[in-house]
Amino acid sequence: MTTSVGSNILTALGAGSIDTASLVTSLVSATRDPKQQVITSKQSLNSARVSALASAVSSLDTFANALTNVLADSSYSAAPLSNNSAIASVSLRSGGTPTGLPAQLVVKSLASARVLASSSASGATSGSPVGTGTLTITTASGSKPITIDGTNNSYAGLAAAINASDAGVTATVVTDANGTRLMFKGQTGVASDFAISVAADDSASVLGGLAWNGTDNSTIASSSDPKNAKIILDGVEHEYATNSIDDAVPYLRIDLNKADENSSVTLSMTQPTGTMKDLLKEYVDAYNTLMKALNTATSLGTDQSNSGVLNGVASVRDMKRQLGQMTSTQLSSTGSYKTLADIGIGTNRDGTLTLDSKLLDKAMAADPEAITKMLNPAVPTPTSPGLSKLMDSVRDSIEKDDGPLKIAQKRYDAETANLTSQLAKLDEQMASYEDQLKSLYSAMSTRLSALKATQSYLTQQMEVWNNSNNN
User: Fold this and answer.
1) pTM of the model as a whole
2) Residue 393: how many CB atoms within 10 A of its CB?
3) Where are the domains of the chain?
């Protein structure tokens, strides 16, 4: 049976009062524990900082994203409105906010297109032949010849060839109780009128009867003349080639649906159905939740044992500084109200916000549209970003790759790896130290055994000498 180093030494000494195995363990612990405690304490603080920074970034992202989502809701945006959409409806165009509203609109006439219809061929179908040759459509943009041959010699083939020619005219095949006929429709507006000329191989064919140049005949006739839309906007008459008008009011599309010279339609912008006061209350509450968490993480405490884990971290101070500047940062370049401070949002000594409801109510009563545009412009710009874009820009600045926050996160991540490496190195050192102690005591055991043997020999010799002398 293998005996321990400690038991060898004890046997050699002839005593049982020294436990060298425990002695080795105690010596290793006495050397390891202070060093390990320093490293693990640093690990705990570093882990807490990593977690706290990650939580701060997550809270900032949640706050910014929630604000963006709320302001994107249509209830917080002004919308164009027509008080009689049966006559004219309106929609917002991208790029800006309509100006010059409210406005009064009268629709005198709608834009229309030239429509031609051929005579019906009794018993014919869309697949019936129409004859071969060339049909040419002429508009203000030029002429488009369309060839009809054996591959498309039918009503449907002719219509498909016209539609594929990009001549500015569409063709359809109509089959009803009277038979089958072709209909041709141009684009709306006087300038979009068209004519048809034909060079048919058989003048008596259906194709041969489709020529039209302003005069109806027995084989083709016009059922609608091309006209421009005519409107009166705030007393000024306008004329357009289409019924969808994009440039009468900036950033507003007006769709004309019915002419009525005796009715005036009011075009305006509605105010948001979700009140900006409620939005600002939610903003202040969410902001304060974020700022209080940052204050706790950076608190001085009474001493180091109860101070915040991010106390003294420059990147968090920078985050609080940038957030704190939002109340005084310009949200709009025009109007009476340009900043959050102008409408009653102030900053407390601890960085949290307060909302002066009386000042906000006064501002809302004076110019609600200006406040809506300041907080939530239809098209944010660098000088008029609105609240959501300002929050996004602050968030981007705080979280930029070369900013203090990212640098701190990288530093703490590196410290995590370094402390882990230090612990692993300490384990290696202590294992080596333990082996050294065991080797030392093993050598001591060997030497003590030799000394014990010498002691026994000398004792025996002395007894022999003593006995001899006594005799």
Assistant:
1) 0.56
2) 17
3) 42-74+274-408, 79-109+229-270, 113-224
